[in-house]
Specification:
flat; 40% helix; 24% strand; 2 helices; two-stranded parallel ribbon; 50 residues; alpha+beta; single chain
């Protein structure tokens, strides 16, 4: 018999106020540890809470 299994790829969206180099390092470590892809956007503090 034949089996067709499709696995959903997880993706996480994050807004951050961290400096870009730090944010990149944290997001890369998270992706490596969990296998979950991260799409992130850096905003100023005011933009992030508005």
């Amino acid at each position: 018999f034949s089996t067709n299994i499709t696995l959903a790829k997880e993706k996480l969206g994050i807004y951050t106020t961290l400096d870009e180099p730090l944010a990149r390092a944290i997001m890369a470590a998270f992706e490596e540890d969990t296998g979950i892809e991260v799409e992130w956007v850096r905003l100023s503090g005011g933009e992030c809470v508005a």
